[in-house]
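pipeline stage [seq->struct] | target=Oxidoreductase | organism=Pediococcus stilesii | residues=364
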Amino acid sequence: MKIAVIGNGIVGATFVNEMLERHPNSDIVQFDGLKGTATIASAGIIAPWLSKRRNQKWYNLARQGAEFMQEMAQKYQMPKDVYLQSGVIYTRDSDDKLQSLLELAQQRIQNAPQMGDFSEVTSSQIKKLFPFIQSTSNGVFVRGGARIDGQRFIHFLNLRNQEKVQVVQAPAKITIEGQQAFVNGSNFDLVIVAAGAWLAQTLAPLGIQAQVRPQKGQLIEINLPDNQFIDHNAPVLMPEGERDFIPTNDGTLLIGATHENDQGFDLTVSAEIVKDLLASGQRIIPGLSEKAIKHVRVGTRAYTEDFAPFFGRLPQHSQILVASGLGSSGLTTGPIIGKLLVDLIDNPLLDVSHLTKPISTYVN
Ligand SMILES: Cc1cc2nc3c(=O)[nH]c(=O)nc-3n(C[C@H](O)[C@H](O)[C@H](O)COP(=O)(O)OP(=O)(O)OC[C@H]3O[C@@H](n4cnc5c(N)ncnc54)[C@H](O)[C@@H]3O)c2cc1C
């Protein structure tokens, strides 16, 4: 089967990997090449279980996504700088809030054993893990939480499959003639549009409207002050009311990220936002100065009106499958969506209604 895959973010890369696992003789051409790929800019937190979101379909998908990511990491023995089950700490500034978070954790673990063990941690225990911070409130430590490096994750899968995939570093244009789908003039049996925030513009030439909008995300990567260092196995720290703090395997710390709905596809670093991210860092880490900023990451997420991801076959064109709208938890849901697209190719009647609304909700 000849397949075009548009996009090499976490969805496109995982789809290709899963397709080749199950159908090693697939003839795949992968198109990529736009700037702002969300997966490359991302922070890397995989911990959906204590989310307050009420969308049950999203939660089902994210819970299965975190589990699938763990399975992939084990199966392919991903190195720690790609995927690390580091755990995640959430702090709360009152005992009541802490108790309700612990209750939620107790409820959620019933159907999510991959959440691992969880327990209350005191501010001094947190300080032992992060000696460079000033004291925080007490928190909950969820040990099954993980962090991934989105760019390295894609690179890992790309390397695994490089012999079997033709990569075209150019924007892809889809055309339809009769019952046949073409990408940049070549005919394909199937077209997978894993185009993230660019789904609407990729489908527009077909007269199809996708209800997906771009959301700018920025985060800063900092070196710790005074030659302090961070343990490579340190968990993610999510202090209440502050930005998230994500240790990297390079000994740096990511602080972020923003959710900017009014900036379109703009990728410029905003001085005001950097100041705001640094200020959050300074409230947690004494002595942190602007000089500590090593790099600013900027990327474009896709989001939908109900902030839910979607995926499936286009009703108008059965040879085209799409996925988008992954929003701020797309590292968590991306790999399972890549896998589910292969499930839908193998079984077009597969029921995914517990995971996503009908595709016509978002694409018409
Ligand atoms: C700053 C930031 C922090 C984040 N932190 C987290 C986090 O901690 N945890 C979490 O779970 N999620 C996080 N996310 C969200 C997550 O990164 C995204 O939801 C997810 O990576 C989206 O994956 P995707 O494959 O759908 O899209 P992308 O990764 O954006 O990939 C889309 C790809 O399609 C290509 N493309 C598009 N159109 C075309 C075309 N016409 N022709 C050729 N190529 C095309 C692009 O070049 C790109 O490679 C974060 C995102 C950002 C920006």
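stage status: PASS
auto-comment: The two ends are 27 Å apart (CA to CA). Residues 58 and 149 are 22 Å apart (CA to CA).
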